[in-house]
Design a protein that fits this description.
Elements (H helix, E strand, L loop, with lengths): L4 H4 L9 H30 L4
Length: 51
């Protein structure tokens, strides 16, 4: 099925795909992991507990 130009103008949806949502979740997960690493290193520096 081939759509005409007029029909393509009224097509809605498809703004958020699964790949986009996965990428957004990965960004937030990376930020949280980075924060955990920074917090852990600050805590280890305060307690002088280095492995």
């Amino acid at each position: 099925m081939k759509l005409e130009d007029k029909e393509l103008l009224v097509v809605y949806g498809g703004a958020f795909s699964a790949a986009l949502l996965t990428a957004i979740v990965k960004v937030f997960t990376t930020i949280i992991d980075f924060g955990k690493g920074i917090g852990s290193s600050i805590r280890r520096a305060k307690t002088k507990n280095y492995c």
